[in-house]
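Researcher: I'd like a structural prediction for the single chain below. Treat it as a standalone chain; there are no partners to consider.
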Amino acid sequence: MRVVLHPDSFAVIKVGEMPEVDFFAIVRDGNGITVVLPESELEKIDAVECERDFRLFTFDAILPFDLVGFISKILKALADAGISVLVFSSYSTDLVRGKDVDKAIDVFRDLGFEVGKVIP
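Model: Treating it as a single chain, here is the predicted structure.
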């Protein structure tokens, strides 16, 4: 299986209302609205809170919903390498801080993944 690193840097922001921007993910819960979006979109929005410099990895596969332990194994290996992860479990995605990209690539390779990059 291949892990793909996307070229953009992403921000995770908290907003008061639904934005009209290009985004990766939006989660609305009882505490507000969280948006994951390319950092290039930040100038278009007023964020209440903002964390920057996340990088997006996707797994080049559709994982069955009854698959047990897949993300746990990956998260343990990343944790052992001192890498924090913001997990957005869709069919294929996870985010890590930009400063940890090279180390995360090494972890994925150690786990047996082929690592590629999306070409913009």
